[in-house]
Design goal:
single chain; alpha+beta; four-stranded antiparallel β-sheet; three-stranded mixed β-sheet; 16 helices
Length: 392
């Protein structure tokens, strides 16, 4: 069995994730393709992930790719997580993940509606009617927020208490439920946000008006094959369990997909991994590099087995729900954390000794990222222990 050690995995990470200085690019869409997708649970993550890998890229360039060129699209996919995807990958994500997610969301919301006695005994038909009316209203407007659509479609203001047996439960409008489901199905898309690039208040648009040809339909097996192939190219070699975690599929679905691909087992320093058979050649080690990656960046969130790049820093850098905060990287491993303070200062905390040269590189990167933020002060979606300390 071939061996691929941790040093080689870190070299691949630096080059393929465009974190080594010689691998950076000024093409926003190419950065997204390098990572398969960009995490977008927190809108600021998308911009800061691109900034960390970009050469001469400003926030306006990312907005241009998202909302004018439309070479990238924001959508729900793996693990019901929000991502920004290269436009050509959207059909793959739709068929491999989003279609099943839409079905699951409808079933879940349908149970709440039945419990509330809504739908005159035929919840699926009632729900389908609300979806159709919402889609027509959005086609008429061209683009709209949920609040605007709820004025056009009164049924969107239907209130349901999903957990009536809980003391803290409160009724909620079904507006978000309907829009999320229509989005998961690929019938509507999230457009430009209201406010700065860190805002999460989006306007919605019908897919017909956003994508000229709509979302192309492809077989689910074909889509799964392509998604795993791209993941292995960016994140391999890795254990099969990492693929299961990242995709959110069952182990059976992962194994069926792998059986159709040309892969090879390799010995890692911490177990057995798999890699595409045509990707066994060693990647030359890049020049020394450092990076400041944002919370939920796709690099640290690309694997479930993280010891080879995380070390023993998890307690300081993750919250209780498994979300990673802002991290400092040096030559393919995490060596500390950082945060933006209210005055815009980038505060750093190294968790291990990395030498004066690397520290100087990190300081320079912190200055660059601080300038990149400008006057924007994103509010973190979650707080990790180290991020709290740095901003206290």
């Amino acid at each position: 069995m071939r061996s691929i050690d941790t040093a080689q995995r870190r070299a691949r990470l630096g080059v393929r994730h465009r974190l080594a200085s010689q691998a950076r690019t000024g093409n926003v869409a190419e950065i997204a393709r390098s990572m398969v997708v960009l995490h977008a649970t927190d809108p600021a993550t998308v911009f800061l992930s691109v900034a960390a890998r970009g050469d001469g890229i400003a926030p306006g360039d990312i907005e241009q790719a998202l909302y004018e060129d439309r070479s990238l699209l924001r959508m729900l996919a793996m693990r019901r997580t929000m991502f920004v995807a290269p436009i050509e990958l959207v059909p793959v994500l739709q068929a491999s993940c989003a279609d099943a997610l839409a079905d699951k969301q409808r079933r879940n919301y349908g149970k709440f509606l039945e419990q509330a006695g809504i739908g005159d005994g035929d919840v699926p038909s009632w729900w389908a009617g609300v979806e159709a009316e919402t889609h027509r209203a959005l086609l008429a407007r061209g683009a709209a927020t949920g609040a605007q659509l709820s004025k056009d479609v009164p049924l969107l203001r239907t209130q349901v208490n999903p957990t009536p047996d809980k003391s803290y439960a409160r009724p909620t409008n079904i507006t978000t439920w309907v829009l999320v489901t229509l989005g998961a199905e690929g019938r509507i898309v999230r457009g430009r946000p209201n406010g700065s690039w860190s805002s999460s208040q989006y306007a919605w648009a019908p897919t017909e008006s956003w994508l000229t040809d709509g979302v192309r339909s492809i077989p689910a097996d074909e889509a799964r094959d392509e998604l795993v192939r791209q993941w292995l190219r960016a994140f391999g070699p890795a254990p099969v369990s990492d693929i299961k975690w990242w995709t959110g599929w069952t182990l059976g679905e992962v194994r069926k997909t792998l059986a159709r691909l040309d892969i090879t087992e390799v010995q890692l320093d911490d177990g057995i991994g798999i890699v595409l058979t045509d990707d066994l050649d060693l990647v030359p080690e890049p020049e020394p590099w450092t990076a400041l990656l944002p919370a939920l960046d796709p690099t640290p969130m690309g694997w479930q087995s993280r010891a080879w790049y995380l070390g023993d820093h998890a307690e300081a850098l993750f919250d209780r729900n498994g979300n990673i905060g802002p991290t400092i990287w040096c030559d393919g491993r995490i060596v500390g954390g950082w945060a933006q303070r209210k005055d815009g200062e980038i505060a750093l905390r190294l968790l291990e000794d990395i030498g004066a040269d690397a520290v100087a590189m990190i300081d320079a990167e912190a200055e660059r990222i601080g300038t990149w933020y400008g006057d924007v002060r994103p509010v973190p979606r979650f707080r990790t222990p180290l991020e709290r300390e740095l901003t206290a």
